[in-house]
Every structure is written in C-alpha cells, then in structure tokens.
Amino acid sequence: MKRLALGLSTALLLLCSAAHADIITYQATLNGTNEDPQNNSSGTGQARVTIDDVLGTMTVNASFSGLSAGTTASHIHCCTALPFAGTAGVATSLPTFPAFPLGVTAGTYTETFDFSNLSTWNPAFVNNNGGNVAGAQAAFLAGLASGRAYLNIHTSAFPRGEIRGFLTEVPEPGSLALFGLGAAGLAGLRRRRVTAAAS
C-alpha cells in the first residue's frame, strides 16, 4: 500500500511537470509606479504573455487605459540585472510591437510571434545573445522565468515608458490540482506512518 501511494504521488507530480512543459503563461500589472524611475501616471493596464514551447511561439495580449498622452511604442525589455528591478534593453521587435495601437490613450493588443523569426527580436538583443535567434530565445525565456523581463508602454508624455510591469508566471490550474493530489497522497502516507508508530 505504501509503495502504491508513493508511486501515485510521484506519477501525479510528474504529470504536473509534463503538463507545464508545453504552455507557460506570464502576466503583469502595468502602471507608473512600476516604471524606473516611478511616475505619477494614472494609466493602468494588464499584460499576458503565453509561451508555447512546442510550437515555438509567444502570444502577447495587452490592454491599457488612462494614459497621459498617445502611445508611441510598446515592447518587452529583457533582461534586468536583478529580478523585478531596474531597466534593460528592448528584447522584442523595434521600434514597437507590430500593429500595436499608436497615438491612443487606451486600447487592446493581441499578436502571436514566431520565436524562430528574426523579425521577432531586436537585432541588438540577438547580437548580445550569441548572434542567432536560438540564443536570443534562450536568453529571453531565462529572463522571463527569473522575473527579469517587463512589458513597457511608451507615450509622448513619458518617452522612456509611462506604464510597465514585470512578467510573472501564472500557475496552471490543472498543475495546481495535480500537485495538490500528490501532496495529499504524501500527507496521507505520513499520517498512516504516525498512526502505526503510535499503536
């Protein structure tokens, strides 16, 4: 019985890891307080970046409102020296995401990028990370995973960035459920051991 419980718990934890390997989602709350240096913008926004490591794609979803002036650019910067602090150069395409709404104070954006396409990347980011898209992708994914990448929206009032947010990983509900089942199985096994020892 002990081996069965342990085997089941291990299998569930492995399934949790396997399910997580295909799609990884990051999110950020965008505001002026998150800028460096901070600003007093009343603008706000949300960003969601979904990585599909099987297809080799990245989907960027963003919404924003209340900006002080019209948008001039938006992109993802990577990689800061420390997690969730500081500034970094632009990692994605320049001068802005393709088809990002410009000259507006509110809007939404959705675009899917192919990691293997050179146009997805800032040429300087590629050159600084091995000189090829594989190196750029590896550095970018490492930056995302370690909290050293942020999405920034620039405006004419704040050319260096009016609102930004560091991207943090969103746990998958299925993975959390599987992890919970595995943890419950291990807790049950421990409880039986304690009960048996007390008898």
TrEMBL record:
State the organism named in the record: Massilia litorea
Q: Which Pfam families does the record cross-reference, listed alphabetically? A: CHRD, PEP-CTERM
CHRD domain sequence ranges: 22-172
Q: Which UniProt keywords apply?
A: Signal
Q: Does the keyword section mention Signal?
A: yes
Source organism's superkingdom?
Bacteria
Query: Could you tell me what this protein is called?
Result: CHRD domain-containing protein
Which range is the signal sequence, renumbered to this chain? 1-21
Q: InterPro entries from the xrefs?
A: CHRD, Ice-binding_C
